[in-house]
Design a protein that fits this description.
This protein is an all-alpha fold. It contains 13 helices and no strands. Bound molecules: protoporphyrin IX containing FE. Belongs to the peroxidase family. Ascorbate peroxidase subfamily.
Length: 342
């Protein structure tokens, strides 16, 4: 069964993963619907060890305070605190480093596991849909409103006209998510962010590392945030600006349209053909199907001087495109994300 506001399957998966994952409601700084309980929180161990009433540091400090009536003893204890402090601080450093190293190792295992499960379901043929899913989840972010973004809410938004065709990639990832959840709960937001990066790499694009820890929203994001395909370059730039994305990032991210059926090169190879084809403006030709190539929004980019400069750079230098796409992708999948506490 597919996800929709009226269909519980995906939201339930979403809730079940969230409710048993490592999220701390108390750590929320912004109004956001939260998963209920926490399972994994290695970094919070640091807080409890360092500041806890039974820690070496606090017991010595408490001792020193309680012996106010006895100046000699107090002075001795203060001297002892002063002498012990550097050692304790150093010890604390080792403990923290150990815990952080453990946490990093855990994250690494989790990351590898998610990537492995994603690879089992995301073939070259399915890559385009999965990559598009990323933009439709993250692209709802608006900086001014501080809402929307990479939060897995796409699973509640699949009936929206702009999301037509995205049930399939969600369904594909649901299978992988189920496998991961059985071992260690993962949010939809992390799942989609990693899957998009893997989709790019399956199609021979750049390797994009994705940090884990995004929280899922439990409700749809506000509507009308994604750019319409009929926007001109000015409208596209404004729309991306509201998401904190520059003109250069708009042009780099639009290069994702090299995948799929819009006629930019090989539909399953992630390369810089998008920019090469844009410069040729095949839609101006009446020959064959060339009038069908590209979306109005793609064609609009090449008519804008600022965008054109980037299009030319990326058409001439695939490595630059890969580097800039990678950085813009990382920014996109972190847009508006709420993170489990550190
Ligand atoms: C710049 C504004 C954008 C607009 C107006 C836009 C709009 C669209 C539209 C209308 C489609 C065609 C869907 C269909 O064939 O049914 C499409 C496809 C696609 N979009 Fe975008 N998009 C934009 C940016 C992005 C970004 C930033 C990404 C990812 C980083 C992206 C990834 C994709 C992919 C991979 C496809 C091909 C999907 C497939 O063939 O299955 N798009 N986009």
């Amino acid at each position: 069964m597919m996800a929709s506001p009226s269909s519980p399957t995906i939201p339930l998966t979403c809730c079940s993963s969230s409710s048993s994952s490592s999220f701390h409601p108390s750590s929320r700084r912004t109004k956001f619907e939260l998963p209920a309980k926490s399972q994994r929180s290695p970094p919070s161990l640091i807080t409890s060890r360092v500041g806890a009433p039974d820690s070496p540091l606090s017991s010595i400090a408490a001792d020193a305070a309680s012996s106010a009536g006895d100046r000699v003893s107090r002075r001795r204890k203060l001297i002892s605190v002063a002498a012990t402090l550097p050692f304790l601080l150093q010890l604390r450093g080792y403990v923290e480093e150990g815990i952080i190293a453990d946490a990093a190792e855990l994250d690494n295992d989790e990351y590898t596991m998610i990537k492995e499960e994603v690879r089992k379901v995301v073939s070259k043929a399915k890559a385009a849909g999965v990559l598009r899913l990323v933009f439709h989840d993250a692209g709802t972010f608006e900086m001014g409103e501080n809402s929307g973004g990479m939060n897995g809410s796409i699973v509640y938004e699949l009936e929206r006209p702009e999301n037509a065709g995205l049930k399939k990639p969600v369904k594909i990832l649901e299978k992988a998510k189920g496998e991961v959840d059985a071992r260690r709960p993962v949010s939809w937001a992390d799942m989609i962010a990693v899957a998009g990066a893997e989709a790019v790499s399956v199609c021979e694009g750049p390797i994009i590392p994705v940090v884990l820890g995004r929280l899922d929203s439990m409700k749809p994001d506000p509507e009308g945030r994604l750019p319409e395909e009929t926007l001109d370059a000015f409208g596209l730039k404004k729309c991306f600006q509201r998401k904190g994305l520059s003109t250069q990032e708009l042009v780099a991210l639009s290069g994702a349209h090299t995948l799929g059926s819009k006629g930019f090169g090989n539909p399953v190879v992630f390369d810089n053909s998008y920019y090469k084809v844009l410069l040729e403006k095949p839609w101006m030709s009446s020959a064959g199907m060339s009038g069908m190539i590209g979306l109005p929004s793609d064609r609009a980019l090449v008519e804008d001087d600022q965008c054109l400069r980037w299009i030319e750079k990326y058409a001439n230098d695939q490595n630059l495109f890969f580097k800039d796409f990678k950085n813009a992708y990382v920014k996109l999948v972190n847009s508006g994300a709420r993170w489990r506490s550190l």
